[in-house]
């Protein structure tokens, strides 16, 4: 099983609308209550390390506002996956209007990292 599938399975325990990489246009036209996630980078922490880090972003999107409890539940849920941890990067909140309405949409993006113990197997 791909690690992204493990992330998706964890997130599905919290929300039934989970998307990887991009939200389908058909969803964007009607409902702005979902979680979307993806990979942002792979990084070697320093020149002497043999490990690599996969970075994943998770964006929670809600019409009006995001309940604080949901943010903490996402963090707790994903931190329960072996090797995946919330990074020290700020959780960035953004706001936009839904279409041409006065409805505010709140988004928060969290960044997680997973260490890949590579040894001599990593290129």
Give structural notes:
With 123 residues, the protein is an alpha+beta fold. Helices cover 21% and strands 38% of the residues. The chain is built from three helices and six strands. Strands 1, 2, 3, 4, 5 and 6 form a six-stranded mixed beta sheet that branches. Strand 5 (92-97) and strand 6 (104-116) form a beta hairpin. The longest helix is centred in the middle third of the chain and has 12 residues, at 68-79. It starts with a helix and ends in a 7-residue tail after the last strand. The relative contact order is 0.20. The mean pLDDT is 89.
Q: Termini distance?
A: 22 Å
Helix content: 10-25%
Q: Strand percentage, roughly?
A: 35-45%
Number of strands: 6
């Amino acid at each position: 099983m791909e690690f992204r599938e493990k992330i998706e399975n964890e997130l599905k325990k919290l929300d039934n609308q989970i998307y990887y990489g991009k939200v389908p246009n058909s969803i964007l036209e009607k409902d702005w209550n979902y979680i979307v996630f993806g990979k942002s980078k792979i990084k070697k922490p320093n020149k002497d390390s043999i490990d690599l880090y996969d970075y994943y972003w998770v964006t929670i999107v809600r019409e009006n506002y995001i309940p604080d409890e949901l943010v903490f539940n996402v963090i707790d849920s994903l931190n329960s996956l072996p090797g995946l941890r919330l990074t020290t990067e700020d959780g960035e909140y953004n706001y936009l209007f839904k279409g041409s309405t006065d409805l505010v949409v709140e988004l928060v993006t969290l960044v997680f990292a997973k260490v890949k113990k590579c040894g001599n197997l990593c290129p």
